[in-house]
Amino acid sequence: DLQVVSAAEKGIVATPSSSTSSALVEYTAPPANPEDEDLEIKLRRIIDCIPVRVSNTSGSSAGSGSGDFHQYRQMRRKEQDRLARMDLDYQKRKQVTEFNKRREERLKAAEERTAKKRLKRQKKKQRKKEKKTPNPGDKNQHHDEEEEEDDEESEDDQ
After folding, report:
1. Would you say the pTM of this structure is higher than 0.90?
2. Contacts of 146 (CB under 8 A, 6+ apart)
3. Residue-wise burial string across 85-99, b where 16 or more C-beta atoms lie within 10 A, e elsewhere
4. What confidence score (pLDDT) does residue 148 get?
5. How many contiguous H segments (helices) and E segments (strands) does the chain have?
6. Are 16 and 22 in contact (CB under 8 A)?
7. CA dist 68 to 6, 71, 75, Å?
8. In angstroms, what CA-CA distances link 77 with 52, 81, 135?
9. Neighbours of 120 (CB within 10 A)
10. How many other C-beta atoms are found inside a 10 Å radius of the C-beta of residue 146?
11. What would the pLDDT profile of 22-65 be if each residue is shown by its tens digit?
């Protein structure tokens, strides 16, 4: 006699066709975002596909026997092992994530340093190229530029 009626989209509850029968109203909340929806789908698939292991069940008329404590200890040990594996897996994933993050930061910093040094080399090369074609009467100026360049290099090394 029970009838499943889905709730309307705008919150108006549909009533059963006959007033004498009772109805169960099934409410489905809209998902907050697509990631939550994907998670719900995955969880539902896991629940549907993966069987739940129930071992060493007692019959309905069975009392507490001498082996029940040992069964309890075994189940408890299995559960503790499962939780320990989950925790270990979480810690490993966390370490890998942190390592990758630090690695990306180091690579970015190294690339910035390399770019800075590359620019410096290009400037030095450009200055050297300009010095190769000096004006004939500028020998003293050429000597002064070399001294300035040496001073700049010593400052950069510090």
Report:
1. no
2. none
3. eeeeeeeeeeeeeee
4. 58
5. 3, 2
6. yes
7. 45, 5, 10
8. 17, 6, 89
9. 13
10. 11
11. 556 666 766 567 777 788 888 888 888 887 777 767 666 767 77
